[in-house]
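QA checklist item 7 of 12: single-chain prediction sanity check.
[x] sequence parsed
[x] length recorded as 245
[x] structure emitted
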Amino acid sequence: MLKWVHSLANPNKLYLFCGRLLWVFTPLGILITSIALFWGLAIAPADYQQGEAYRIMYIHVPAAILSLALYSTMAVSAFVGVVWQIKAADLTAMATAPIGAIFTLMALVTGSLWGKPMWGTWWVWDARLTSELILLLIYAGIIALYHAFDDRRLAARAAGMLVLIGCINLPIIHYSVEWWNTLHQGSSQMQQSISPLMRLPLRLSILGFMSIAATFILMNLRFLILQMEQRRTWVITLATKGGRK
């Protein structure tokens, strides 16, 4: 098993493996997300307090969860890349960064849409919202730093260090609703406290969003591998065959 995992450090094998995974995550993400959103937005009952406005939850909650989960994935990959000098880990971290930034932006936008009818304002400098905004800026900084260097190895090292430094913001986001008196509702036991007719599509939505995130990360990772290995024989051979791998 360890030998197989170690083999994925080879860019060619990693590229092919990502291609196989795409055949799993792409249809899975489309199917599950479609079912979850239709169920949550059209079938699930209205909330007795928030009415129809609560339905933004089926996009906001998965996006917020993924904003943290993808950064955690980046942190693990960056740590492996910095400590063990594995190119595949560096590429995985950088392939994850723009996808994490997109989901963080989605969480902020949908949070504002949800907050307007609940709080009467689009934005407040709430601890949870502010720390999530800082996370988006960290994502942007990582992406900008990676593209600021022509040397890909140096770029990955610099960006990886910033990823690890930015980890300090993750517990602040997660525990902000417990450490400070905020407008944002507490997250503990939220999925257990709502009706099963609302809870099941929410969990499906989280699973579907995860599959979609994995799809885009895999696609981005394959692009970065081709970019890094563009002068290699296997990439030239792949290009002459029309990329059918």
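[x] summary fact logged: The two ends are 24 Å apart (CA to CA).
[ ] second reviewer sign-off
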